[in-house]
Amino acid sequence: MNTIEKFNNHVMQSYGRYPLVMEQGKDRRCTDENGKTYIDFGSGIGTNSLGYCNDKWVEAVCSQVKNLQHTSNYYYTAVQAEFAEKLCETAGYKSVFFGNSGAEANECAIKIARKYSFDKYGKGRHTIITLVNSFHGRTMATLSATGQDVFHNYFFPFVEGFKYANANNIAKLEEMLDDTVCAVMIEYVQGEGGVNALDKDYVDAVYRLCAEKDVLVIADEVQTGVGRTGKFLAGDNFGKKADITTLAKGIAGGVPMGACLTNEKCSGVLVAGTHGSTFGGNPIACAGGIAVLDTVNSEGFLDEVCKKAEFIKSKLADCEEITGMSGLGLMIGITLKTKKAADIVKKALDKGLLILTAKDKVRLLPPLTITYDELEEGLKILKEVMEEK
Ligand SMILES: *Cc1c(COP(=O)(O)O)cnc(C)c1O
Q1: Is the pLDDT of residue 130 over 90?
Q2: How far is the CA of 45 from the centre of ligand 1 (A)?
Q3: Tally of CA atoms within 13 A in the half-sphere of 280 that contains its CB
Q4: What global pTM score does this model have?
Q5: 223: Cβ below 6 Å to ligand 1?
Q6: Of the candidates 29, 79, 174, 177, which lies 20 to 30 Å from 318 by C-alpha distance?
């Protein structure tokens, strides 16, 4: 039996998968079981931020595996302490809770927001406003937080206390900010929702209106964080720092890790016994995270991310099939004139290029370490596929 048959016999069919059996990867390229190589513009949905098996990252992760793979959160480890310190200093936050995924990081943010409000104002101030078209994860609470009706099926009843505001509509938000609201949760650039950046005016208004009422701002930076947009946090592009910021995807270079960062005001909300995660802050994941942070923090790295984004846009500027490009930094959405994004992805795959979709757009999330030569090579394939008659 081949891999795909064996796989489908026993793994639940909860994903639409491409018929590609990935075997090995190095830097920005990977190889399938037949030895065909691909250049990767998707980074495993933004997780392999340094590409596949980056030398420094491999060394950090392997040396940690050989030393101590896990201990419970009843004890301390130096590697978690070091990662926490570096992450908080880089991101500009007071403290962090570690989980294993974006959804877990957002669950933590939701719990902190509700408990912050409960501790200070008592019961009833629990509503969290999220945005239409947002994506916050697949657990029951984060699905409930996700502002897309397609996700609100089958699994009833959903978690109470979420309301959805249309992005960039300031008047509507103002109207919705009643006495039951404890937090507003935003993605600066909606990733799964179609790579749409929020308007600067709207972001300003969210912060202003929330500050007036001691309503917390939660920034879901699971996709936008850790250098993806050319700043360490996407909020830096807007000159804003949320009370709570969540990170996952690229944070540890492809090992499971989620982080919920809080400012001084929210750092004391979770006390012993109120939250936890068995694997949260796992030493291997923290070692991977340190390697990512050291790379992203290195001199000139984020400027290069911005330059590469400009390079991509300029190379695609003359492509007839493209009617628009959205996003920030190396998070790029491409609107197509006549073709379907899913077809473009399949054809690119045939020609040895991995890309993604977001709603009806083609989405690019290349590794942050990608070179200009590799970009050129991949973009040549992308243009061929787009311009094919
Ligand atoms: C991917 C994503 C999540 C969910 O992350 P998981 O690790 O799959 O739980 C949440 N929010 C945003 C913005 C995401 O892009």
Answers
A1: yes
A2: 10
A3: 20
A4: 0.98
A5: yes
A6: 29
